[in-house]
Amino acid sequence: EEIAKGGYDHFMLKEIMEQPESVANAMRGRVRPGEGQIKLGGLDDVLPQLTAAERIVICACGTSWHAGLVGEYLIERLARVNVEVEYASEFRYRNPVLDPERDVVVVISQSGETADTLAAVRQAQGAGVLAIGLVNAVGSTIARETDAGVYLHAGPEIGVASTKAFTAQVAVLAQIAILLGHERGVLSDEDFETHVEALSKIPEQIQTVLDGAELIERMARDYRYASNFLYLGRGVNYPVALEGALKLKEISYIHAEGYPAAEMKHGPIALIDQFMPTVFIATRDATYDKIISNVEEVVARGGTVIAITDEGNEGLDELAEYVVEVPKTLDAFEPLLTVVPLQLLSYHIAVMRGCNVDQPRNLAKSVTVE
Ligand code: G6P
Q1: Strands (E), the chain
Q2: pLDDT in tens, 135-181
C-alpha cells in the first residue's frame, strides 16, 4: 500500500497532486490546439444526435453531480443547449418526462457502478432516449450499458472523497461543450480555438496552484477547530462551492454548506459570526462586483473570509483573512483551478483533526445499494 501511495501519506493527497497529469490524460489525443477539432472517439456514432438534441439531461450522484452542474453552465454557455441536472436517485423515481426525439441523457460516474445512476441509464433507455456515459472505471456496468460514452482516463481513484475524478469529469464536459458549440455554430472557428488553447493550458495551471499548497496548509491550521463553514460562489463557481463544502463534510466531519453567493441573504447570513469561516470563490468574471458586496456583508457581520480569486487581484486583500490566487483562464474553465485549493483545505483540516482521510466513517467509494 505504501508503494501505491507513491510516497504520499494518503491516497487522497496523491490523487490531488496527480491532477495535472490526470486532467492531461482526460484530454490526451482529444484536445489538439491548432487542428480545429476535438476528437471524442466514443461519441463519433452519436454526435449528430447529440448535436441536434434540444435538451440534455445530466444524471449523477455526489461529486459527479457537482461536475454535472458545472457541465450545465458550460454546455448552456458555449453550445446554447438547454441542460437539466438531476440527482439520479430523484430522476429515476419521478417518472420523468422524456422525449426520444429531443432529449439525450448523459450520466456521470467515477466508479460506473452507482446503483441510482445505473437505474437512470435504464430509465432513459426504457423511454427510447440515447444514454451517454462519462465514466472513469473502464469496463464498469455503466460503461457497458450506456449507448456511447467518454472515458475520463483519470486512473484509479482510491480515496473515498473524489478529487481527480471531478476535475477529469469537468475537463470532459468542457470538451463536449466546446465540441457541441462548434458543431452547432455557436462558437466561431476563432472562439473554438481560443477555448481549445485555454483548456490545453489547464494541466500546467493546476500545477501552479499545487505549487502554492503551503499557504493552504497554514490556513488549515488556523481554521481546523471551526465547527461550521460556509462556501459561496456564483455562476460556474457555485458548484465549486458545493463541492468544497462536500469535501470538508466528507473527510473532516465539519458541517459545511455551499450556496450561490447571492442566496446568502435568504438564510445563511443569519449564521455568520466570528466562529464561522466563509470561503468565497470570487474570480473577476461578470458577477465579480456582486460577489464583492457579499464579501463585504460577511465582513460587516464580523465573519472571517477566505477568498479564492484569480492571479493579480488585490481587491480582496483588505477584506479577506487569506487570499488564494489561481492562474487566469477563461471564466468557463475556472472550476478546474478553483476547486483545487478547496480539496487541499479539506485534506489538511482532516489530517490535523486526526480523521481517517482515505476511509471516512460511514462512506463508501462506490454506492451499489439504493
Ligand atoms: C459516493 C462516493 C463519492 C461519489 C459518489 C458518486 O458517495 O463516496 O465520492 O461522488 O458516490 O459516485 P460515482 O462513482 O457514481 O461517481
Answers
A1: 31-32, 37-38, 55-60, 82-87, 103-109, 130-135, 148-151, 228-233, 255-260, 277-281, 304-310, 322-326
A2: 999 999 999 999 999 999 999 999 889 999 999 999 999 999 999 99
Specify the ligand 1 atom closest to the Cα of 363.
8
Q: Which residue CA neighbors atom 4 of ligand 1 most closely?
A: 62
> Mean of the pLDDT values across residues 17-44?
94
Report how far ligand 1's centroid is from the alpha carbon of 152 (Å). Answer: 14
Any ligand 1 atom below 6 A from CB of 111: yes
Helix (H, G, I), strand (E, B) or coil at 134: strand
- Residues 330 and 250: their CA atoms lie apart, in Å, by 30
Catalytic residue check, 164: no
Own/partner pairs, 5-10, CB within 8 angstroms, 24+ separation: 9/351, 10/159, 10/347, 10/351, 10/357, 10/358
Whose alpha carbon is nearest atom 8 of ligand 1?
365
What cell was used for 61?
450522484
Q: Is the ipTM of this complex over 0.95?
A: yes
The confidence score (pLDDT) of residue 100 equals 97
Ligand 1 touching residue 160 (CB < 6 A):
yes
pLDDT in tens, 265-308: 998 888 999 999 999 999 998 889 999 999 999 999 999 999 99
**Ligand 1 near 64 CB (within 6 A):** yes
Q: For residues 259 and 240, what is the distance between their CA atoms, to the nearest angstrom? A: 10
